[in-house]
Amino acid sequence: MDQIGQEHFAVLVSDNTNACICRCDLTVEEVLTLLGLPDCVHHISSFVKDVVKLPYFKEVMRIVCGTITHFHKVHISIHEFQLARKEVQIGHSLESIGKTRFDTAIISACSVQRCIPAIQKVIEYDIADFSEFCDYFEPLILPSGMSSAQAFEFQTILSRLVNVGLLAVRALTCLKANEANANDFFLFWHAIATCVIETITSPTA
Known about the structure:
This protein is mainly α. It has helices at 18-30, 40-52, 58-73, 75-88, 103-114, 116-125, 149-175, 182-201; strands at residues 11-13, 35-37.
């Protein structure tokens, strides 16, 4: 830094390991013109992780994980699901949850929401055994004119999960760009907070 010139540095960012945070703090104390910033991508990722672990979303995440596992491992269901997707013209299939990237939980929830019409077709075909979760994917209004309480509750909470988490996932993608700066993070963070507040407070969300 001294060789290049301290005046050429404005901001120092570290990841959230203790050693890196300590080193960043010491450098900022020594170079008074530096701003020390946290790892914003990590913080947003942690936010997504905390959201999907909320008790309110526990049952929805269980159904999402179970549905994806079923349509990735049961051969007859895989085949029927492919046929159903073609029939209802859904291009992208279900996406698995990654082990290290927490935002993939939201992406997986989005994929289940997107594929609901295809899953309903698989149930309608009545060839593959999807009995464990089929009640959650029934049409919201049944042919008898009655509404499906389980399906309504699941799809409503799934929609809330997507509404809360999807903007954070999009922000993570944008903030990984080389051109992203502190101002971008400030705008994205407030947009995420606003989206969460609107979802929580809106009676129709």
